[in-house]
Amino acid sequence: MVKKLIPLLLALILVTPALPGPAAAQQGNTVTVWGLVVNTDFGLVIKDGNTDYLLLGVTDDALAGKTCEVVGTATNTLGIDAIDVLSIEVISDTSSMNYSMNLVPDGRTARTVARC
To answer: Which residues belong to the signal peptide in this entry (predicted)?
Structure first.
């Protein structure tokens, strides 16, 4: 019985197409993506936590380090997920945050302890 199931399962695996990723599933459709914009060697990229999308038509390097909402047309060329940007809006700016302002040299947060 098991020997008969193995060829059937193998055929099913080979015939079933791979599930497309988010951009591939919506390729050619208008998509909205929220994420952190970073500057790479290839241009600006938005990272939404699952996928990195190259932002086509965006050249403003001042967007790097900002959380943005991008609306555009999803594309996938040569395995690179990209968005042909129709609009981009800055949601928040994290580029100037100083995460170390409350830290002491040993890496712990400085706190005052009241003693009775």
So the answer is: 1-20
> Measured on CA atoms in the order 101, 107, 109, 114, is the torsion positive or negative?
negative
Residue 44 maps to a domain: yes
User: Which of 72, 71, 43 shows the shortest CA–CA distance to 59?
Assistant: 43
Domain that holds residue 35: 20-93
Residues 6+ apart with CB under 8 A from 43: 54, 55, 56, 58, 59
> What's the pLDDT tens digit per position in 46-86?
999 899 999 999 999 999 999 999 999 999 988 999 999 99
Rg, C-alpha atoms of the chain: 23
Both tokens assigned to 2: 């098991």
| pTM of the model as a whole | 0.59
Terminal CA-to-CA distance of the chain, rounded, Å? 77
